[in-house]
Amino acid sequence: MKIAITGCNGSVGTRVVLAALAQGHTVHGIDTVPCSEPLAGLLLRAQDITESKFEFSIVDLMNFEVTLAALEGADAVVHLAAVSTPADYKAVTHNTNVVLSWNVLRAAAELKIARVAQASSVNVIPLVWTDHHDFEYFPLDEEHPCRPDEPYGLSKVYVLSTFGCTCRRVSLKLAFCAESASFRRTRSCAGSRSCALPAFA
After folding, report:
1. Residue 198, Cα to own-chain centre: how many angstroms?
2. Which residues contact 147 (CB under 8 A, 6 or more apart)?
3. Exposed e or buried b for every residue in 37-58, given b needs 16+ CB within 10 A?
4. How high is the pLDDT of residue 2?
5. Do 72 and 54 form a contact (C-beta atoms < 8 A)?
6. How far apart are CA 110 and CA 113, in angstroms?
7. Distance separating alpha carbons of residues 150 and 94, to the nearest angstrom
8. Which residues of 147-185 are buried (b: 16+ CB within 10 A; e: fewer)?
């Protein structure tokens, strides 16, 4: 399967790239900056699993037509590209994340790519970057109300709604992954359980 992975240079993206390659998939890594040193180094050390199965493109996913062209030929998309903090707590994070997710999801629908995984966040509750933790019960689950008070968490709530909107019109298999934090590791995690890809079967 050919998987397009957006945000492939990020701390989560590099792990997902390696996990996909280790499972025998072909990967199209997409980011806004050149292939990062950590990703390039990991790919070099994992040459036995990468062979010619990895291609990389610098793509501005804020442009819908460019996104459409970049995802053409993919069988599945793992969308990890995003501004990963509230940044200035004003407009950049919210507006960027909402447009990125809409463009990727809409392009997948147009191209009939039926398998999409999207990074969500625990901050839809909210959890991090808030002064007001508003938990109604424990353990937390998917039914807990979403009441973010900052732009990053709000952008992720909109993304959930965007996926719902699209799925009411197009048949898609979706997976949401809500990570609470990610840290770079110095060793390859290819084959590790912690790097498991969403089940696209």
Report:
1. 11
2. 125, 126, 134
3. eebeebbeebeebbeeebebee
4. 97
5. no
6. 8
7. 9
8. ebebbbbbbbbbbbebbeebeeeeebebebbbeeeeeee
Can you give the pLDDT at residue 49? 61
Token pair for residue 74? 């993919």
The tokens for 32 are: 């806004």
- The per-residue pLDDT string of the chain (201 residues; one tens digit each, 9 = 90 and over) reads 999 999 999 989 999 999 999 999 999 999 999 988 888 877 877 776 656 799 999 999 999 999 999 999 999 999 999 999 999 899 999 999 999 999 999 999 999 999 999 988 888 888 888 888 888 999 988 899 999 999 999 999 998 888 888 888 887 777 777 765 554 444 433 333 334 444 443
Could you please report the per-residue DSSP string of the chain? -EEEEETTTSHHHHHHHHHHHHTT-EEEEEESSSPPHHHHHHHHHTHHHHTT-EEEEE--TTSHHHHHHHHTT-SEEEE--S--S-TTSSSHHHHHHHHHHHHHHHHHHHTT--EEEEEEEGGGS--SS-S-----SSS--TTS-----SHHHHHHHHHHHHHHHHHTTS--EEEEEEES-----SS--TT-GGGPPP---
